[in-house]
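--- STAGE predict ---
source: upstream dedup step, 1 unique chain passed
mode: sequence only
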Amino acid sequence: MSLSRVTARDALGMPVPPSWVARSVNRVRDALGLGRRKLAPPFIVTLEHLQGMIDTKALAVAVELEIPDRLQRGSARADELARDLGADADALNRLLRFLVSRGLLGTTRDGRYRNNAVSDALRRDHPWSARNWVLFFGGDWHWKIWNEAKHSFLTGESAAKAATGHDFFEYVNEVDPRAGEAFNGAMTEGSRLQGLLVVDAYDFSGVTSVCDVGGGTGAVMGDLLASHPGLRGVVFDLTQLAEPARRHLAACGVGDRGEFMAGDFFESVPDGHDLYTLFAIVHDWDDEHCTTILRNVRRAMAAGARVLVTEMPVPEGPAPSFAKVMDLEMLILTGSGRERTSAEYERLFTGVGFRVERRIPLPSLFTVFELAPA
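--- STAGE serialize ---
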């Protein structure tokens, strides 16, 4: 049984704005934020930024307690929820009151708590749940890693390795199942949204076969093949992702046109395809490792093939940016991973014999770099 075809609008829960509108709105929001900070005393600015820890952990605890799932059954008072959870009613009420003040939960006129648009999307059964993102950023294991942040900032090495004794990807995929579930779930949903935006933004005319390098559980490939019945595709990733990827492709009704191939993209990638996609793969690695991956892709390409690299470039200037947040995250988790400016990405691509044919800005602030052999 196939899933109904989905779009980026389904994922966002709202119409998808044109890229120029989304980016203009983001610049206005950034300018207002910078202006507000300039109007506040330095001490207040400092205190406001220190509250981020409380925001993250409060939201994570609410998700771990499945508050959004419980409120799906109807609005409730704090004491009712506390009885259900075996919790202290006063303490729980203080948590929920805080989340309301942050716009992360709603209330009724008679003071009962209810889901709003944000908390509703944190339900376990929401089709586009952001639950795993909260469990990723707010998980105790993630905080343990960030407690070693000084090590990364002084040495340029992974705080994950210092905290756990394991490289990050080894830790989430082989050591800590709960961490792996949260991290891989978050990455799957993030990649799927970017994939849907790319499906809308890129003209796949003339493309017959696609290889998604580092394609994980097939989230992107499933939607891509469902949107283009004439395409065939290969999801290429580590062996342990084979079964979930095959299940997902089958659930999307594209199991006859999509397959999973196991391998290591540092050694080789499947050859002969006329389009290769890399969704948020390049930022995981330093230039040396990225060069190896991209060279392997270039060797595998059929004549006339193209490559789509989807990443979130770091903008110039002092404005806040999620790319700047994730740049620190990549340093802390991996040591070698990093976000790059558009110019840095292009130097990386040209260094392995590609030329940038086009840059396609997405409403999500990611950019698709279309590459061809130089």
